[in-house]
UniProtKB/TrEMBL annotation:
SUPFAM superfamilies: TPR-like
First and last residues of every TPR repeat: 465-498, 499-532, 533-566
Protein name listed in UniProt: Tetratricopeptide repeat protein
Keyword Transmembrane: yes
Keywords, ordered alphabetically: Membrane, Repeat, TPR repeat, Transmembrane, Transmembrane helix
Domain Glycosyltransferase RgtA/B/C/D-like: 77-220
Sequence intervals crossing the membrane: 12-31, 90-111, 118-140, 146-163, 175-202, 253-275, 295-313, 320-343, 349-366, 378-396
Organism per entry: Acidiluteibacter ferrifornacis
Amino acid sequence: MNQYIRKYAPYLLFVFAIGLYFNTLNHGYVLDDFSLIKENFVVKKGVDGIKTIFTTHYRYGYGFQSGSLYRPLTLSIFALQWEFFPDQSWFAHLTNLLLYALSGGLLYQLLIRWMDPIVALIASALFIAHPIHTEVVANIKSLDEILTILLLIVLLYHLHRWVTKNEKKQLYLSMFALFIALLVKESAITFLGVIVIVLYFFEKQSISDSLKKTLPFLIPLIPYFILRFNALKSMTSSAPVAKIDNMLVGIDSTASLFATKIYLMGLYLYKIIFPFTLMNDYSIQQIPLVSLTDWQFNLSLIVVVILAIIAITQTKTKSLIAFGIFLYVITLSVSSNLIITIGTHFGERLVFLPILGFCIIAGYLIQRLIIQKKFQMIGVIGTVIVLILFSVKTISRNKAWKSDLILYSTDIKNCPNSARCNYSYALEIMKEKALKAVNEVEQQHYYEEAEQHFLKAIQLYPSYSDAYGNLGLLKYRTKKHAEAEKYYLKAIELNPNNAIVLSNLGAIYFEMKQYEAAKNTYFKALKANPNMADANANMGATLATLGQLEASIPYFAKAIELNPTNIQNYYYLGITYQNVGNGAMAKKYLDHYHQMK
């Protein structure tokens, strides 16, 4: 039987994954797909943008002036996708799907080198089917997570061959895989810990020998950190993490901070075992702060301590249970907020790789049942039932990721206390429903609904600058300019560098014919974000209106560079060149305008 499992399992797992996520192929862009792909001016340059991608931080192409993330290989793949399949989300989803399916087959082929084929098969199948992975596979942006596990598999494959065959070439290939993985996502640095435990648990190495054999893998870190430093100009970002992104920021009580971090560890474990209430957002107020006396903390602490005891006591026997726990802890370490504070306090995508540890543990425990005749049917039937439940949930959950509107309208039922979820849902109502309403009565209804969710977001998080800013935009669109200005000013008070709000405020001043005020406001917007297309175009229009034609030209040109599909900017630049007497340039841009019409 093991012979047939070995032969056909990789192909079956590949097909299994395709079946689970086939319904994502008609999905569009969702969440960070916009900032990293569809609205990223560097990525949309295609191949020409790759050089910039390698020399700037992760979110540079969306206008952020500083950042702490450096993932050039992931963005480069997005740029290549845009080069050959521009604005074709189906192709990006197909890429995620095929690579995820490939990871399932390769994962099994890696695991059977160290464990029973049944354990490897069950672990791989559970990993593929687990519903918590829907965020990763159905969200194009999370290609980095899929590539990370693929590169870890490649690394460990060559590591195994190096140790067993003593071929230097295999060591170099393994080191190269680590370097590439770091360019995909920073959390690949945890691979160093994975190498140590793999050598110890599976390759018959002592702890000291495992550590020694891991030393060469420090070498790939050198070129990576050089590239990272040159792009970021530092190893970390000076920009603080916002509380709306990570509720752990600004907690004054050390005891509460510790208790909440442990509770979050317990919540991850709960979601892994019972993945039936999934959400795209767990931001501020959705997850409560806890204290040392709260049951959530105490239960989480007990579970964490028990797992630690099991891992430590079973390390000597090299138990798969101990290995699984160590794999989980090591790969989650950077994202857990226990060591460093990252840009979010909780996210389903963050356990994409760590969950493999628990899948291995489950595979091992089920295999122990199956090899005993009296429990064999329990093990088999139980596994099948879990895989069916996981599969049904995965296919169902995928549907929510079709668009932002569907995602937020689905998740608002489960995260009503999330400030960001309310804010994002209001934004989608305003953008996708109000602006597309068939009549004024329907439109007004949608604006009122959006306003309620904006106000709920502000109630949950009173310092929510973006919520005030978009509430101002709502008032602007309903012709209530005085209220719009009030909300814009409040948003700017909370965040003086909110470039979008500054640009929108400038539009009000422009409409009120207060051109100098508009000019000064656009200047502040561009100081906050020089790569904002709308602010550049609006500054150009304001300067032209003030008669400063020559000064307006660079702003129109920059707007075209940032958003080459906006045909109006070609027209404005052409007319401006015409008015300053430059006929050749006027013809160039006006011809381009007429060609694009």
